Amino acid sequence: MKIKPTVSLCLITKNEEDCITACIQSAAGLVDEIVVVDTGSVDHTVKLAEKLKAKVVPYAWQDDFAAARNFGLGQAAGDWILVLDGDEVLEPVDRELFARLLAASGVEGYFLTIRSLLGDGEEEVSDQVVRLFKNNPLYRFEGAIHEQVIGSIKQQNGNFGLVHSGIAILHTGYLQKRIAAKNKHQRNICIIRRALEAKPDDPFLLYSLGIEFTQAGDIIQGNEFLSAALVRLTGGEGYFHHVITTLGTGMLQTGERERLNRLLDNALIMFPGDPEFCLLKGLTAVQSGDWQAAADGLRQAAAAGTDTLLPLCHIQVLLADALLMTGRNDQAEAAYLAACRLAHQWQYPQGRLQELRQRQSTVEKT
After folding, report:
1. pLDDT, tens digit, for every residue of 23-41?
2. In Å, what is the CA distance from 80 to each residue of 77, 109, 223?
3. Helical packing angle, 240-254 and 219-230, nearest 10°
4. Which DSSP letter does residue 64 get?
């Protein structure tokens, strides 16, 4: 009879009383123990965690997320580690699926999708991060901020042993109200700048700093550090794609269309037909008024169903507008109709569709 693998939920906290309960409860049914490394909470975080049967271990904060994370791993007794942050919740997981993941042979860890809500919660970005892995003392996090365990797992397994799980985590830490309350961007920028003093050419640190400036609304500074990161990358890094999409979005916002087109042309050589890069090509063409190129890029993005950079209904509307500008009325009508199906209450595509049909009816009558 096979013994069921045990799982330890590990998280680090500081003043998370508004979200710690939801975080722990989201995973409680899948794990055998809960290890909370608290870095100095002065609210009710510790009491709430202990009420949910968590083992709470105090830790003196050292401006190093990897160090805190690894301290927690050292306290865990499970066969597997599941890592969450206090401002995250594990989206519903089928228990049988979870058991199969833990029992799979040749797997040392799994990528989970992190869905981060932005601003007031109506936008989101996603990323793939290793958050479920075997409890091996050789598997440890690296990086003072935006810490990663993937490097040590790959190093011990010849770049093998990691697969995608299909499991998702919802992250609310980038919501404006939480950022304002905890001043996260300024804290993170200070930590990364200190780390860069020791490693000024580290691409991941430069990428992390660019992300922080971008999310704080300083797009120009964000673009500068993302560009510095990009020229130091080989293309095989797990965050390589995200560097390009974030930098591309920033260039689009600052109107650097020629530079953006060069970036995307090179990116599409490496990733032919990539929907996010095609979308950025289409949006750049919209800015330039090149409606044929806009339609080409937007059509590829819409066909892929991508919605990580822009809601699919918005892509369909932009595609319809571009098709209309190039005289392809029938195709434009289909795209407006697709947008209406995706967003039933959005009046713009409904109005455009009605106008288009009335125009065609008038032409037919004459």
Report:
1. 999 999 999 999 999 999 9
2. 9, 9, 38
3. 140
4. -
d(CA 18, CA 117): 16
* Region label for 250, one of left (φ > 0), alpha (ψ between -120 and 50) or beta (otherwise): alpha
**Separation of alpha carbons 89 and 184, rounded Å:** 19
300 Cβ partners below 8 Å, 6+ apart? 273, 275, 278, 279, 282
**With the CA atoms of 251, 254, 257 and 259 taken in that order, what torsion angle do they form, in degrees rounded to the nearest 10?**
-50
CA atoms within 13 A on the CB side of 330: 0
What is the rounded average pLDDT of the residues 1-13?
88
Residue 21 contacts residue 44 (beta carbons within 8 Å): no
pLDDT at 251: 97
- Alpha carbon distance 91, 109 (integer Å): 18
| Six-digit token string for 268 | 């599409």
Q: Any residues with CB less than 8 A from the CB of 10 and at least 6 apart, and which?
A: 35, 37, 69, 72, 73, 75, 76, 81, 82, 83, 84
Compute how many other C-beta atoms are within 10 angstroms of the C-beta atom of residue 122. 8
d(CA 25, CA 14): 18
Contact (Cβ atoms closer than 8 angstroms) between residue 156 and residue 139: yes
162-171 sheet: strands from edge to edge: 55-58, 33-38, 7-13, 80-83, 123-134, 109-118, 162-171, 88-90
Query: Which tokens sit at 19?
Result: 């979200």
Report if pTM > 0.70.
no
Furthest C-alpha separation in the chain: 80
